[in-house]
Amino acid sequence: MPNLYRLPNLYRVEHKGENKSFYPEEVSSMVLVKMKEIAEAYLGQKVSNAVITVPAYFNDSQRQATKDAGVIAGLNVLRIINEPTAAAIAYGLDKGKSSELPRKCPFIN
After folding, report:
1. Which domains are present in the chain?
2. How far apart are CA 67 and CA 98, in angstroms?
3. Where does the UniProt annotation place the signal sequence (predicted)?
4. Nearest to 48 by CA among 56, 40, 38, 60
């Protein structure tokens, strides 16, 4: 199991004697890359655009960091929206007619 050391605005990971340092945006982008791969496998096509959800309590700098992580992950971040807003949109899509919107614009949370 790798050791994780928290430095100001930097995560240092020691794994098998090797040290690596990551900014929080880089760690988030690693998660987004994996989510992008899962979405592409499910959809059967390349994913380039994304709407990313964040907790409602995120401030502007946290939202910008999340957007930066999306760009690092190779995504064109169309919008950053609050999780409650995403839930309301998903609820509305579920209640409406069947459409292609969810397949063309998946939410990445």
Report:
1. 25-108 (3.30.420.40)
2. 30
3. none
4. 40
Over residues 28-58, the pLDDT tens digits come to 999 999 999 999 999 999 999 999 999 999 9
Place of tokens 């994780």: 4
**pLDDT tens-digit map of 52-104:** 999 999 999 999 999 999 999 999 999 999 999 999 988 888 776 655 555 55
Closest listed residue to residue 82, CA positions, set 61, 58, 98: 58
Q: Which of 65, 53, 63, 54 is nearest to 25 (CA)?
A: 65
Token pair of 67 as six digits:
């957007």
